[in-house]
Design goal:
Blueprint: E1 8-11, E2 22-25, E3 41-44, E4 53-55, E5 61-64, H1 69-76, H2 85-91, H3 98-103, H4 106-112, H5 118-125, E6 129-133, E7 139-143, H6 144-147, E8 148-150, E9 153-154, E10 161-167, H7 169-172, E11 175-181, E12 191-197, E13 214-219, E14 226-230, H8 236-246, H9 260-279, H10 290-294
Parallel strand pairs: 1-3, 2-3
Antiparallel strand pairs: 4-5, 5-10, 6-7, 6-10, 8-9, 11-12, 12-13, 13-14
């Protein structure tokens, strides 16, 4: 779609004051999908030269905001970490055409901050930390689970830029479980839950870095990511009580892709499936009804 109010496109490498009507341009799949009458200038990130994915000296994975979904999917084919299947599972949770797949960016999905954004699910589920740059060059780090604060709302300040998300090595070594429900095949996620079980420390001692903690991250069914941690293997009652206490009734999202009552039901069901898969004596998932299976 033509943005007929935009009068200038500026290279992001050129320094300049942030003005009313400015917006960062990544892949552009959202910006050019509907009218943006409030925009006057686009700051183009396509020539920044940021490496899409790189492993830091600490063994963490840094994903640039400009990394495309296609690049992330290809990277996952040969990445060595235990949690790497989650990358492709979240990539495939997109309601994406070929154009979206190859142009949409990791950072754009986070900054749109929609409940069904699967890159939000991936980054929050693996304890990602968002690296934010302000107009003066200052750096701010925010856990992705706290970056999105509501449907379409996040903590970005005026002119602030999402530079990258860092996934810690500890989380990348975790065993993971993934559950996703939609009302119809290839539909937008109505509930997407991720479980991550930290590996125990090599010495067998429990430490904050490698404690065997189970982390349950709830997305898509709620207006913001909600994260629960269990330092010891929980039973079904503990998980249900934790979800009940963590999610306020008004936080279940309501749109044409799922009624809040259904989203709530699937949240509780998938939370228990994940608990059983990662901590229960029987590895696997609960039996699903045909309707629920079709939504997976």
């Amino acid at each position: 779609m033509d943005l007929n109010t935009v009068v200038e496109v500026r290279d992001a490498r050129e320094r300049g004051a942030w003005r009313t009507g400015d917006a960062w341009l990544g892949g552009g799949t959202y910006l050019f999908s509907e009218p943006q009458p409030h925009l006057l200038r686009l700051i183009d990130l396509s020539r920044t030269g940021w490496e899409p994915l790189r492993v830091t000296a600490a063994g963490d994975l840094e994903i640039a905001a400009t990394c495309t979904i296609a690049e992330l999917s290809r990277y996952a084919e040969s990445a060595p970490w235990t949690a790497v299947p989650l990358f492709e599972q979240c990539c495939r949770a997109f309601l994406a055409s070929w154009k979206i797949w190859n142009m949409a960016t990791f950072g754009g999905n986070l900054c749109n901050s929609l409940p069904a954004g699967p890159m939000i699910s991936l980054a929050a589920g693996l304890d990602g930390v968002a690296v934010l740059l302000d107009q003066g060059g200052g750096i701010r780090r925010v856990p992705v689970a706290q970056f999105v604060v509501g449907a379409g709302r996040n903590v970005l300040r005026r002119g602030e830029l999402l530079r990258a998300v860092v996934l810690p090595a500890r989380a990348l070594a975790a065993r993971t479980a993934f559950r996703q429900a939609s009302l119809y095949g290839l539909g937008r996620s109505g509930a997407l839950l991720i479980g991550a079980l930290d590996p125990p420390s090599a010495s067998g001692r429990q430490t904050p870095q490698a404690s065997g903690t189970l982390t349950l991250t709830i997305t898509a069914s709620t207006v913001r990511p909600i994260q629960l941690r269990f330092p010891v293997p929980p039973n079904a009652e503990a998980v249900r009580e934790a979800v009940e206490n963590a999610v306020e009734p008004h936080e279940y999202f309501d749109d044409i892709h799922g009624h809040p009552a259904w989203r709530r039901h699937m949240t509780f069901r998938y939370a228990e499936e994940i608990r059983r898969e990662l901590t229960g004596p029987a590895q696997g998932q609960c039996d699903l009804t045909p309707t629920e299976e079709a939504g997976r």
